[in-house]
Specification:
By secondary structure, the protein is α+β, with helices and mostly antiparallel strands. Helices cover about 25% and strands about 20% of the residues.
Length: about 200
């Protein structure tokens, strides 16, 4: 994940490159693969802090000018108010894979229908990046989905090719009322999600 050898890794090694939604997902999936449930919500700043956190030692993340702080949502939106989420994803930052069906990242973040849709496209990673951006935009639009497993939120397409969200809950699959628009270029994917109160 950090693109360095084990010899280069030390307690002071920065994990800043993982302090975003995609990097965080990669780290959490890697820990899950090892049978470890992460005891933190925010990526620790250094490898040493990660080790301490996993060992049960409290880690305080300093707030700096670069720290992303989530703004508090208003307690109640007025009737008819729109909630909007937007996300942009660099396509090349998604992992390369010869077989997306078997790759741990893609299995952990996308549903089987999304995998099936993307792998038959000429540029599968562009579609995966679009799905990723849509899921992140949904979380920004509707914070009630912030802790929902990404593979349980899937993008499907209607007969005209327009995307929409499905939420795979224990009681069954429901179509979410949120409107979603996904676009991508050669390098970037973007999504906007809108919902009304």
């Amino acid at each position: 994940m950090l693109m360095m050898s084990a010899d280069e890794l030390g307690p002071g090694t920065s994990l800043r490159s993982l302090d975003n939604s995609l990097g965080g997902a990669k780290l959490l999936l890697g820990l899950k693969h090892l049978g470890i449930t992460a005891p933190f919500k925010r990526i620790p700043p250094t490898f040493g802090d990660l080790q301490n956190s996993l060992a049960g030692v409290s880690v305080t993340t300093p707030v700096t000018a670069d720290t992303h702080i989530a703004a508090e949502q208003p307690a109640e939106l007025p009737p008819g108010a729109l909630r909007i989420g937007h996300d942009i994803q660099d396509i090349k930052s998604l992992p390369n894979s010869a077989d997306y069906w078997e790759h741990e990242f893609y299995q952990g973040c996308f549903g089987r229908t999304e995998l099936a849709y993307a792998v038959v496209q000429s540029e599968p990673k562009a579609h995966f990046a679009g799905f990723w951006a849509a899921k992140e935009a949904l979380r920004k639009c509707d914070p009630s989905f912030i802790d929902v497993d990404l593979s349980l939120l899937t993008i499907a397409h209607d007969t005209a090719g327009k995307p929409y969200f499905l939420y795979h809950r224990p009681g069954g699959v429901i179509r979410l009322p949120h409107a979603v628009s996904i676009s991508h270029s050669v390098d970037m994917a973007s999504a906007v999600v809108v919902a009304s109160k």
